[in-house]
Amino acid sequence: MELDKKTLNKKSFGEVLPVIVFSVLLVLIIVVFRIMMPGFLQSSSVYSILRKIASISLAATGLTFIIIIGKVDMSFHLIGCSAGVCFCWLMVNVGIHPVIAVVLTLIYGGLWGVITGILVSKLKFPDIITSIAVGSIAYGSGYLFSNAAYIYLHQASEKAIAYARIATVPLPIWIMIVVLGICYWIMEKTEVGRKFYSVGANPKTAFLSGINVSRIIIIAFILGGVLVSFTGMFMNAEQGFGAVNTTLSILPQCYSAVFIGWAIFKKPCIHGTIFGASLTSIITLGMAQMSLPYYWGNLVNACILIIALMISLLKYNDREKMVPPEKSKKEEA
Amino acid sequence: MNKVLKTLFRAEFVLFYVLIFVFLVFCILAGPAFYSSFNITNILKASGPLAIMLYGVTWVVASGKTDVAFPEIGSLTSMTFAYIYLAGSSSVMAAIFGIGAGLAMGLVSAILVIKFKFHPLISTIAVSTAGGALAISISGGSAIKLAAIANKTFLYSLCRQQIGPFPMIFIIAIVIAAIMWFIQDKTKFGQYIYAIGDNPQAVKEAGVPTWKINLILYIVSALCAAFAGLVYTITVYTSGQPIMGTSFFLNGFTMVFLGALAIKLGKCNVIGTLISAIILSCLTNGLTQLGAHYSLTQLSKGILLLVGVGVVTFTRRKRIGRTGLLKYE
Amino acid sequence: MSSFIEVKNVTKQFSGMKALNDADFSLDKGEVRALLGINGAGKSTLIKVISGIYTRDKGEILIDGEQVAIDKPQDAIDLGISTVYQDPQMIPSFTGYENIYLGSENSSKLLFSTLNRKKMRAKAIELLKEFPMEVDIDKPVYLLPAIEREIIAILRALSKECRLLILDEPTSILTEKEKHILFDLIRLLKSKGVSIIYITHHLDEVREICDSYSIFRNGKDIVHERIHDGKVDMNKIVESMLGESLNELYPPKVKHTTEVVYEVQNVVAGNKVDDVSLTAKKGEVLGIFGLVGSGIDELSKVIYGSMNYEKGRFIKDGKEINLKSPKVALDNGIFLVPGNRKEEGFLPELSISFNTTIAKIKKIVFAGINVNEKKETEDTQILVSKMDVATPTIRKHVNELSGGNQQKVVVAKGLYTDADVYIFCEPTVGVDVGAKNKIYQTIRELCKDAAVIIISSEPEEIYGVSDYIMVMHKGRIVMEKADKQTDVKDMLVHAIIDE
């Protein structure tokens, strides 16, 4: 193992190559957009792209936690909707200070995650359908806040979460950097992160290694709910009003983000998702700014998702977890 | 606990009871406006196409997979039909193209899941996103009005018929359910759907060509959704709809899982889906008449879905058993 | 009598290891042959080759004197060869007759052809007339007791015009009474000319029901004997199964002074663990031997807190502990190397260092939260060297290692927890000789400062490594002796005979 002594902090070429390829791809795409629209990524358009990246990254990261532990979630975009209107309602109808409203909203999002988490981990409900159900209940609750109308945000302080800038960088980006930085650190550098990866690798073995698997599942769903609440708040503040259907459309983009990240780094991970979120956001917004209708962006996103799936060649074995191809074929004596 | 379960088992008609219960509750709450012949017809008119849209998905879910593409298949069919019809083709031609487009989406899902062995949910998310985008792109996001179509298609005139208080489209839904019920219950294919849902490994070991069955399932799912989309386009909206309404998604899964409470306890089936469609239509109709908040409708559906999932989960656990007694969570 | 099926000079290799080594095997029509041999001797490989799951590398298979190609399971079925495994795969919610005819519900090849359940049921009844057995074919099979499920599986095989029926450990899930029902069925099949290969560890069953036996060792058929008048030379069989003991495989046993560390009292778990008590002592290796199905796997899980139990007390270092999860066990210094390393032992797609440190990750956690990767690497390297894991780097994913090396990583994981009690369950299944030796060495080294329990279905392993030996049979402890007072034959005899 002399190899380990020398390469402790160095990654092998095979690990670095996808990152390089991808970064080059990202730059190329930006360049292409730039050529087609000289104003791309300059001044005002930069800010909207940055805000979008922040929104998608946070929601997608929440989803990443759930995918890392081997589950799927169809509730996060619905929780985001609910949390977004809750936020507006708290500030406008109840008159709570924006900062406190943020905190309360995050807790609100987390609570929905707890419900799904408990149903899936303790009662062994199937993840997909249960998250659809709980998400729908959350979405319905959103209507209670908004009374099926828009909640208009008139004051600058209410919209500050999206528009405020610190050192000319929009607040959402700062929040994204801090929160995702913490998430990355948790997953890659701490004990808890290892427990997440263990549960994802094999829940039975994780259990026998002394990990409280139920607790990890619940935490993952809580994180999913909390992180997407940020997205709900950003998007509503940006558009200036709270609407229940605001974050509905982020579902496919977030899935794309997570799987692009998986394709690059050979495992679902926070840093991969950030890359993926950047790619999908830039493409979506770039196409929108080219005056291409927004749905072309969706189409491209869907294709990217399929390409990402093909690159990582993840096979789905009859309700077992996803595994790469050759390794699932080993014969046993 | 055993006693309760025994009653449930014997009463595989529990969903009928639920339907009757819901109906009566709204009769009491909303009065004559609710149980008038006109209103009942409306309810049935709404449940017909709704049920048809989900018949195929019912089978896919029974075989153990999730298919979320059905609303977008409906949209794509709708828009393709409208576009081609307005471009001058006959309604039949347009219908063929419309259903063909929906079918194409189903085939893509099938290829991704069967050939490439991707996760069924993720694959159908991708396909629904792509299909939905294509649907919207046909007209740039707005509906395509087809006012002129009203009197020209056989399908429309057919759907205007009624037999007593029963609208034609509802009867069509029953007929399709009956045919699919026959296939489900009396053919090898139907047998294999449920076998795959219970233990796919055993089915493969028995030498059954599961890929063929899965392929057919995705095709049927797409056809049902496409046909329903067509019906909606012609009769309900009289326009091509780029987005078939976000409530289809929740309604759909609620129907499929609640449907597992009927006839084949714990297993999704088309009769159950049909009955659930009626229940949901009653719910929506009744709540609207009572002037209830939209959120109440959403909430009640979400809770119903959870109940359905709970029943399916618990019966499945009973079947698989706790062999090994391993405590692992 | 002409042979019905003949297997000649067949070899089958898996990544360097010869599971079948130029093996010969033949069977007559209507013959019931027991297939004996310890784990890894080649029995299951042989039947997998005959039933088409594996393709042989070399050699030929002849049926009725003619060479046949069996390249996939369907080929075997077409030739009349069917296998029934332990706990056969079925569709739980389908009835018995639906399961019997799964895949062949009617004579049509069309998927959409109608199936007539009444006709299927009638066909099943016809089949039952030919092979009269008491079984409820109308209930969904998840409601049936084990013997009836097995009968359904056998009926399924018979419905395909079966000429050779292979039964793999058929009695492991059956009660005593149920076994006799199975034997009646076997005699019936015999009278109809069906040949049967009967794989088992239970020599009393061989005596009762088989015409002959074949003993496999190291991938070859070394003994083939007819059974006359139900007489069987147990000693000879046991000796042949074991062969020359590879004494070099087991390290010398150094005796130490002992101290009680972990006591298990009167534990009951379903019908698999029936009032078992044991005492694990530091300075001593406790070996628990039992055949497949005797409850040893369940016992290993119960004493580690990973399986539910109805009764029992667990006392560590004199204090009673509430053993409600593996976490509690680990916190109390108990570690289990589980029986199935692929599904329970290691985390796939994760590195050796990740796997090694995961059970006691606190040791590399810095300031309460951060993982110190440098320490992780150092600690892992120490253990990897100690266990002789063959790998170019500790960042390799564990699932890419060979079986023996994987098991060594699992053991290393245990060593990392600095436990007081180590439980090894089936530690050398599918593991090469070198790794076996290493694991036995580790066990003996560990017992100096910790209590070691080794639970296994390989008698020589238990005998070779333990100081104190217990034998488990049908959930109960039927023998407890110091190693000097017993031997492998004695152990086997206790494990298979009902008292």
What does this structure look like?
The complex is a heterotrimer of chains A (333), B (329) and C (499). Chain A has 333 residues and is mainly α. Chain A has a domain at 44-247. Chain A is built from 14 helices and six strands. In chain A, the strands form three sheets. Chain A has a two-stranded antiparallel sheet with strand order 1-4. In chain A, a hairpin with a 2-residue loop joins strand 2 and strand 3. Chain A is globular. Chain B is mostly helical. Chain B has a single domain (43-319), classed as ABC transporter involved in vitamin B12 uptake, BtuC. Helices cover 75% and strands 2% of the residues of chain B. Chain B has helices spanning 2-10, 14-30, 32-35, 37-62, 70-86, 91-115, 120-139, 154-160, 168-186, 188-198, 200-205, 210-237, 247-258, 270-289, 294-320, and strands at 144-145, 162-163, 166-167, 239-240. In chain B, helix 5 packs across helix 12 and helix 6 packs antiparallel against helix 12 (210-237). Chain C folds into two domains: 3-242, 3-Layer(aba) Sandwich (Rossmann fold), CATH 3.40.50; 247-496, Rossmann fold (3-Layer(aba) Sandwich). The longest helix of chain C is centred in the middle third of the chain and has 16 residues, at 176-191. Classes of the chains: A mainly alpha (333), B mainly alpha (329), C alpha/beta (499). Chains in contact: A-B, A-C, B-C. Chains A and C meet through helix 1, helix 9 and helix 10 of A and helix 10, helix 11, strand 18 and helix 13 of C.
Radius of gyration of chain B, CA atoms, in whole angstroms: 20 Å
Unreliable segments of 5+ consecutive residues of chain C: none
Structural class of chain C: alpha/beta
CATH topology of chain B: ABC transporter involved in vitamin B12 uptake, BtuC
Describe the global form of chain B.
globular
Mean pLDDT of chain B, rounded to whole units? 84
Give the averaged pLDDT of chain C, no decimals.
Answer: 86
Ends apart, CA distance between termini of chain B: 23 Å
> What is the annotated CATH architecture of the largest domain in chain C?
3-Layer(aba) Sandwich
Number of helices of chain B: 15
How are the strands of the largest sheet of chain C arranged? 6-7-8-3-9-10
User: Which architecture name of chain B does CATH use?
Assistant: Orthogonal Bundle
The domain count of chain B comes to: 1
Q: CATH homologous superfamily of chain B?
A: ABC transporter involved in vitamin B12 uptake, BtuC
Q: How can the largest sheet of chain B be summarized?
A: 2 strands, antiparallel
Query: Given the structure, what is the number of helices of chain C?
Result: 17
Distance between the termini of chain C: 39 Å
Helical fraction of chain C equals: 25-40%
CATH class of chain B: Mainly Alpha
Sheet with most strands of chain C: 6 strands, mixed
